[in-house]
Here is the input.
Amino acid sequence: MHATLPARHFHLDKACRLFRLNRSGAAVVEFAIVAPLFFLLIFGMIEYGRMVMVQQVITNASREGARRAVLDGATSSGVIAAVDEFLDSAAVNSQAAEVRLSPDPPENAGYGGAVTVTVSVPFNKVSWLPSPMYLGSTTLEAKTTMRRETVK
Here is the structure.
């Protein structure tokens, strides 16, 4: 097959081969330039994904606490225990979370009165990364307000 190719093709093939030999370190240099940006994007996606997940969990935890707080006989410790149980079952550290009730105790709200449960957690306490780059100083907060279901 080589016998049918013109001689100048062999010359071009030799030049291309020399060019490829001279580019032996180009991939390493290109990777060194692109890798930091790539890793920043990956860690950013992990961090923001975790933030959205924890925000949803604390929203649901505040809702569970408010559902418990509006019932007859509800106590502050019972509401906080319900929130902590929900956070622990969702793999969010309940020790890092702060739970506030308004009014405290919930039975101070009269018939049809509003009870608010607020759950807040510093993001650096629930991040999957050892040191959050973008959201380290952010505090996530969720608030749920419901009306008391007491009897007149």
About this structure: Residues 29-148 form one domain.
